[in-house]
Design brief:
alpha+beta, two-stranded antiparallel ribbon, 3 helices, 14% strand, elongated
Length: 113
């Protein structure tokens, strides 16, 4: 569900393309977000999933048929210093640093000055 109350998707384990999760095994929130991309046309970095306990981190597990709520985030403004850090992290292929930047969420489509 979106925070507006709109039903986004009903994801079932048997629909999993990997089919490793065809039972009610837990799924990582990151996996759920990746599967939601095709429904909401927004990258996982702009998605927040919540349940009755609060915001779920990407490494948290959810077990079908949990009810989750989706909030789509707008980009946060980036300072010149943050953009420079982003470019340097990308040049070094520093994945953890790049993921942290994207989770803020900052727009990855900024141009170098």
């Amino acid at each position: 569900w979106l925070s507006s109350g709109e039903d986004v998707a009903s994801l079932r384990p048997e629909d999993d393309e990997d089919a490793d999760n065809a039972d009610s095994s837990p799924l990582l929130v990151r996996t759920v977000k990746q599967r939601l991309v095709k429904y909401v046309d927004q990258p996982r970095f702009r998605q927040k999933l919540l349940n009755c306990s609060g915001i779920l981190e990407d490494d948290a597990e959810v077990t079908p048929p949990d009810t989750l709520y989706l909030v789509l985030l707008s980009f946060s403004p980036s300072s010149q210093e943050q953009q420079t850090e982003w470019f340097e992290a990308a040049a070094r292929a520093d994945i953890p640093k790049m993921e942290k930047y994207l989770l803020a969420p900052h727009d990855p489509n900024v141009a170098a000055e």
